[in-house]
Design a protein that fits this description.
The chain is built from 8 helices and no strands. By secondary structure, the protein is mainly alpha-helical.
Length: 136
């Protein structure tokens, strides 16, 4: 319950900032927009990551095989496939990585439509806080 109130409070705060002080949002955004490339570290330790992911995926599939949670079994199978690719064909991971490594900047869109986004954040945060008050 406290999580919903916390998220609602953060949503209200950023909604108000978008509506009242967009320059503050821009300064926060400039400090927060940093790209961290994890690929060299990930590929350096690909075997331990692959073995850990393989074990986790087998555990997920084995423990949920009798449950009616098909989506978790699908996640386990996808993790199993990814772990085998990581262990056996790391070049395939590199080619997928090149296609997936794109940076999409959403800041101009947020600033262009800051009023609707701010109102949405403000109203949704207020609703989260209001609906959680009944549970206290």
């Amino acid at each position: 319950m406290i999580y919903i109130v916390s998220i609602g409070t953060i949503s209200v705060f950023f909604g108000l900032l978008l509506l009242i002080a967009p320059n503050t949002i821009l300064s926060i955004e400039r400090r927060a927009n940093k790209i961290y490339m994890t690929d060299p570290t990930f590929m350096q330790y690909r075997v331990p990551f692959g073995i850990g992911l393989f074990a986790a995926s087998i555990f997920i599939i084995y423990s949920l095989i009798n449950e009616s949670t098909e989506y978790l079994i699908i996640i386990g199978v996808l993790a199993l496939i990814f772990s085998l690719m990581l262990l056996l064909t790391p070049k395939a991971i590199f080619s997928l990585e090149r296609q997936a490594n794109r940076v999409y900047m959403t800041d101009p869109t947020f600033m262009k439509y800051r009023m609707p986004f701010g109102m949405f954040l403000l109203l949704s945060g207020a609703f989260m806080i209001y609906s959680s008050i009944g549970y206290f």
